[in-house]
Automatic annotation (TrEMBL):
The name this protein goes by in its record: Cytochrome c oxidase subunit 2
GO molecular function annotations of the record: copper ion binding; cytochrome-c oxidase activity; oxidoreductase activity
Organism: Phaeocystis globosa
Cofactor(s) recorded in Swiss-Prot or TrEMBL: Cu cation
Membrane topology classification: Multi-pass membrane protein
Keywords: Copper, Electron transport, Membrane, Metal-binding, Mitochondrion, Mitochondrion inner membrane, Respiratory chain, Translocase, Transmembrane, Transmembrane helix, Transport
Amino acid sequence: MLCGFLLDSSTSWQLYFQDAATPVMEGIINLHHDLMFFITFIFFFVLVVMVRTLYYFQRTTESISSKSRFVVHGTTIEIIWTVIPSLILIIVALPSFALLYSIDEIVDPALTLKCIGNQWFWSYEYSDFEAQSCAIRFDSYVVAEDDLEFGTLRLLEVDNRVVLPLKTHIRVLITAADVLHSWAIPSLGVKLDACPGRLNQTSLYILRNGVFFGQCSEICGSAHGAMPIAIESVNSERFLLWLNSKI
């Protein structure tokens, strides 16, 4: 979906990331850019070395091969091609570990969302309101193609969107009721398996308004492709109004 020129859902022939809406996804995209610099440099460097090697060590050029055929070992070059890749791996590892730790970090959440995967729909629960005997629970099914409104997305729109507040630390608990599922929203940088009998946990901190679409990313049966996820981020006032309408 293009909301204010931002890409928040998958599109046909898409090759690049969706636009980031969380600090985690921003970190993933930035790490990708950094890695692409090293990958591009290594690719062209190896290409040049390979072409030069094929040229200078070809048997058809007698004047060159007569000199190069005696080259069987080079201590200097072996040291270089061992040390430089090691340094590159260290440079790549430092931001990678920093990003991994930031993804796993769970701060004191202001809101908890529980997601339960079922064949083939998602169930959601806002369990913070359990003490007030007004816990909010609902199921989220894909909207059939015949029921789609104009401008909505096929196989991505749901009948009950998950509404979450902006700039709020949110804890997400994910599990499954039957088989393996996976709760994945690319714009939010989240992809976590939903396993029966296991409770997985992640966190969200959404930076902007929007409707962010994802799908189940673990093959879970015949209707695996009909398990979309729709997250709508709103300001605190609208979130409270939505909560009051659900209680």
